[in-house]
Amino acid sequence: MSDPYETTEAHLDRLLGRALNSYDLPDRLVERLGTALAHSSSLYTTHHSPAAGLWRETHRHTYLLSDGGAVSLWELVYRLEDDRTMRHEVFTGKAEACLAVARLFGETPSEVARDLAPIPAEEAARGDAALLGALFAASGPESARHRDYAVDESADHARRVLRRAENADRPGEEPARRLRSAYAHQITQAFGGRHGVTGGGRDRSAGVSLYEHAFLLLDGSEVSLWEVEHTATPDGRHMCEVYESEAAARGAMELRSRVR
User: Fold this and answer.
1) Is the pLDDT of residue 182 over 80?
2) Residue 155 and residue 180 in contact, taking contact as beta carbons nearer than 8 Å
């Protein structure tokens, strides 16, 4: 979840400045990182244990370098038992991050390795350089989308969104089950998701809005619900429909945008 308003140089300086162990990084690697042209950051895993007072997240920061290569740094952000201090450590590989988690939290490396699940096969196949190259060159709506999650009873919010959906093809039990582990969310109105109400009588334009409800789950994954709000009802009543994909929601939006 990269900040589109932060330069790559500023992002790298902030990352290395807050890491307690940044001095362990090889000098040659730091020099190469100084040539970074673009970057992408993502939350890879998260593990919360409120009863024990433990909390940790693993982030992957990938940098596209001027020589066409790419470098990933793995950041461990954590709090220890009975200590509210947020600490940061950075590593050159996922294996090193696993060993650090095992050292800090008393877990076995195999347990940590299961927690740090493998990168999805399709992403690994493309490689970091291709992934960042596409990010650097992209200019479409998807590349501009930025997440700014808020931790605020997100599982309850997901339940409310699903409960008010009136469409027969709304998300089923499996998405609802996954969203029970949501702990942060963001609501945004999607571009192109509103049509003004004009005219009257039996031939009128209906007001249609499209919203994305993006959720961050405890396993580090992201799930979105797409909500179409419209007045394309016989009596002009406000109605909500919810879909699992943007394509399905936009298709419904186009159908509802005209009421005859």
Assistant:
1) yes
2) yes
Amino acid found at 2: S
Dig out the tokens for 47 from the structure.
């593990």
Instruction: For the full predicted model, state whether its pTM sits above 0.70.
Output: no
87: tokens are: 């600490």
CA 194, CA 249: separation in Å to the nearest integer? 13
Instruction: Tell me which amino acid residue 214 is.
Output: A
Query: Band of the pLDDT at 103, cuts 50, 70, 90?
Result: confident
CA-nearest of 225, 230, 223, 219 to 242 is 225
Q: Residues with Cβ < 8 Å from 140, sequence gap 6 or more?
A: none
**Chain-centroid distance, C-alpha 149:** 8
Tell me what pLDDT residue 123 has: 45
- The answer to whether the CB of 183 falls within 8 A of the CB of 217 is yes
Q: Give residues with Cβ within 8 angstroms of 59, minimum separation 6.
A: 41, 42, 43, 44, 74, 75, 77
Which uninterrupted H or E stretch holds 62? strand 54-65
Q: 205: which residues sit within 8 A by CB, 6+ positions away?
A: 195, 196, 197, 198, 199, 257, 258, 259
The amino acid that residue 114 corresponds to is: R
Pairing state of beta strands 199-200 and 203-205?
antiparallel
Structure tokens at 215: 């959720």
